[in-house]
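Sharing a chain and its predicted structure for anyone who wants a worked example. Both blocks are below, sequence first, tokens second.
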Amino acid sequence: MPLHRVCAFSELPVGGVKRIGEPPIAVFNVEGKLFAISDICTHAEASLSEGMVEGETVHCPLHGAIFDLCTGEALTPPAVDPVQTFPVVVQENEIYVEVDAVDE
């Protein structure tokens, strides 16, 4: 599968997040585990990469909806629709996401 480079592994410390271009994807490092989700909240189009991470969830900075980083599921209102998740691959200390899984 085609991969989209995010950054070097060393550039995404534990607790960090990186946002990449088109489509907007946020990659989170939660205690050494990497998650990639669509960076746009399904409720009000806020950037989830700017939200607070708590465990394996992220809080939308605009209205507080909470999303599961593993599944993309919207866990609390006002969001009801999930965000898309993407497979993350680490090769030779570089982080990539599989972007061909993007819904068009």
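Comments welcome. The domain at 3-101 is CATH 2.102.10.10 (Rieske Iron-sulfur Protein).
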